[in-house]
Amino acid sequence: MKEVKSRVRNILLIVLAFSILITLILIALTYPDYNDTMTEKQKQLLADSNILQTEYGDIEYAVKGGGTPVLMIHGAGGGYDQGLWLGKVFFGDDYKFISVSRYGYLRSSIPNNASVKMQSEAYKPLLDSLNVDRAIVIGVSAGGPSATQFANDYPDRCSALILISAVSMGPAPDDKDPFYVGIIHTIQQSDYGYWIVTRFFQPTILELMGIPTDVYETFDPEQKELAQEMLDVMHPMSQRYEGTINDERMIRSYTVPADNVSSPTLIIHAKDDVLVSYKHAENAHNKIARSQLVLYDTGGHGMLSQMDSTRLLVKDFLNGSTSNSTNYVSEPQDI
To answer: Residue 45: what are its φ and ψ, rounded to 5°?
Structure first.
């Protein structure tokens, strides 16, 4: 019996030593590339943004492009850089993107008693400082609550509201299971761990972020490139962790304040979004009077597999809301 136990112990030690060796080799091969990526990204983040001090907390922002102002409000795990990327992906180059880092993301602080309403109130002095009277407001994922709140509280400052894969209330029954959200949080706390996962396990991390694996497998090369860009823009991930946790606290008991939303509103969501259930889209549509709901059967979180269609949808909506917003319909559409 002792001989058997000794053999088992030796085998386990060999397996452990082999695992440690493989891990060390992996780190040796990948860490230099990781370090270069983080160094370059950190320089870029600091160079491209500004900080505005407001009574609602410090808000980090960046402005890019010219044309009609668009206030970009990013999702969980994002920052002003994600907002700029989303603007490029969904809109192109003919707009002036004003992209913020929400509370706890990158260099934006989390004030005492932070709330969705307080977050939205910070957008007004930002627009004032930039001499912007009215803007198209875009809320993506966890950026949906403060985007909707701003449109509700400052209707004269919002020319149109677009919600993409957006949260509109506290947790819904079909949202991502808390167990898997916990896995995301664990990965978020390690920049190197997140970098490794995004390099070698893209389908897995995208599944956790709301894009089903079977949807990812249908992506063409351009869509896979967009998916990788979406993952890469969130480096360094640890600087976005506090914002993600703060989002959950603020949104836990949140409901859409829609009584005063007067701007034409477009709500886009996919039924197979496994991070933010499309019930959020239906909830927003039911409460926002001048809204149109467009539900795709597939698309995942962020609508990457429906990007071409979504771009045309957004373009047509903005052309219609600008030329004759009173005719904007509110009937839901399934695509």
So the answer is: -60, -45
Q: How is the chain split into domains, by residue range?
A: 1-48, 49-175+240-334
Taken as a whole, the chain contains a residue count of 335
pTM of the model: 0.88
| Contact call for residues 252 and 309 (beta carbons, < 8 A) | no
- pLDDT tens digits, one per residue of 150-173: 999 999 999 999 999 999 998 887
Tens digit of pLDDT for each residue in 282-296? Answer: 999 999 998 999 999
The CA distance from 292 to 284, in Å, is 10
* Count of CB atoms situated within 10 Å of the CB of 125: 15
Interior/surface letters 86-102, b for 16+ CB within 10 angstroms, e for the rest: bbebbbeeebbbbbbbb
Residues facing 101 on adjacent strands: 60
Tokens 């230099």 -> residue: 32
State whether residue 77 is helix, strand or coil: coil
CATH number of 49-175+240-334: 3.40.50.1820
